[in-house]
Amino acid sequence: MEKKLKTIAFANNKGGSGKTTTCANIGYSLTARGKKVLLIDGDMQLNLSLSFFAEDEVLSFAAGEKNLYYAVKNQKDLSDYILHTAYPNLDLVPSSTLMSGIEYELFTKWQREFILKNILKPVKESGNYDYILIDAPPTLGGWVMNILCASDFVVMPVEASPWGLFGVANMFEFLEDVKKINESLQLLGIAVTKVDVRKNYYKQTLEILKQEENVHVFEHIIRVDSEVEWAQDSSKPIMAHKKSARSAGEYMELAKEMEENVRRIG
After folding, report:
1. At 155, phi and psi to the nearest 5?
2. Rounded to whole angstroms, what are the CA distances from 11 to 14, 154, 183, 216?
3. Which of 38, 78, 180, 240 is deepest in the core (most CB within 10 A)?
4. Pick the CATH number of 6-223+250-265 from 3.30.70.20, 3.60.20.30, 3.40.50.300, 3.40.50.10490
5. For the residues 163-189, what does the mean pLDDT come to?
6. Contact yes or no for 29/251 (Cβ under 8 A)
7. Distance of alpha carbon 192 from alpha carbon 17, whole angstroms
8. Mean per-residue pLDDT for 115-135?
9. pLDDT, tens digit (0-9, with 9 covering 90-100), for 7-17
10. What is the C-alpha to C-alpha distance for residues 47 and 42, in angstroms, rounded to an integer?
11. Which residues of 59-91 are buried (b: 16+ CB within 10 A; e: fewer)?
12. Which 3 state secondary structure label does DSSP give 9?
């Protein structure tokens, strides 16, 4: 029987927003909350894949044909491209550096905005997952539109810095365009990341974001934590690297708030 799973895209056209780190650690945190999660690495930079597998393994996935690029290019059932991570109930579809050419591949396809949605359908119908989380590249175009057309919700990580808000307005406009095709798409919320509470940037970022109408800004923030980089260096989510790390608790709280918001807005 098909579960009522939810697909959440993590997207921001501004690089350096903490998007991939948030996607990876929310995914792990949801499994710690008893959920089954599939992660999809939609970015040619491979960082989501590198969050769970060693570099040589990730490069091997990217060099072969068992990755997202070939699934999309050949419009194949995504079930055949799923890998198990070292963690229970947490699976991943790896990316490839060839994703840099995915816009060209999409350009020639019929109903190109719905290719990812179509190849995801068997995965959704399998009932194996509670959540599918997709890491989108920091761009706006046909591929990100594909990701958003396959999603129920969007989480927008925003860095608490002078440049963090750059491009947010463009992202909102893009979401409105996508909603013309995927009417059920909703912005789940904005996650404020890389926060240094000693600096005024954080307060300024919050003040500006909270001026947006009908936009939920998550209460739980992610502060700057050097342990995150050490976790990334060892290809582990922060909770698996050091459960006592401050950011480990912050991601757990954010995951809980996201789940509550999913239930609230449906």
Report:
1. -110, 130
2. 9, 7, 18, 15
3. 38
4. 3.40.50.300
5. 91
6. yes
7. 9
8. 96
9. 999 999 888 88
10. 10
11. bebbeeebbbbbbbbeeeebbebbbebebebbb
12. strand
- The residues that bridge with 132 in the sheet, in sequence order, are 7, 38
In angstroms, the CA 181 to CA 260 distance is 26
C-alpha 19, offset from chain centre: 7
Tokens for 95, please give them.
């990316």
pLDDT at residue 1 greater than cutoff 60: no
Q: Is 169 exposed, middle or buried (0-12, 13-18, 19+ CB in 10 A)?
A: exposed
**What single-letter amino acid sits at 107?**
F
Alpha-carbon distance 194 to 225, whole Å?
8
The two three-digit tokens of residue 104, written as one number: 């060209």
Element (H, E) at 134: strand 131-135
Work out the angle at residue 165's Cα, subtended by the Cα atoms of residues 163 and 169, and round it to the nearest 5 degrees: 135
3-state SS class at 156: strand
How many angstroms separate the first and last alpha carbons of the chain? 20
pLDDT score for 41 = 97
Q: pLDDT at position 125, please? A: 94
Side chain identity, residue 119: I
Q: Taking 90 as the threshold, does the pLDDT of residue 103 lie above it?
A: no
Q: On the CB side of 97, how many CA atoms lie within 13 Å of its CA?
A: 6
Give yes or no for a contact between 61 and 67, defined as CB atoms under 8 angstroms apart.
yes
Q: Which two tokens stand for residue 247?
A: 């950011």
22 within 8 A of 158, measured Cβ to Cβ: no
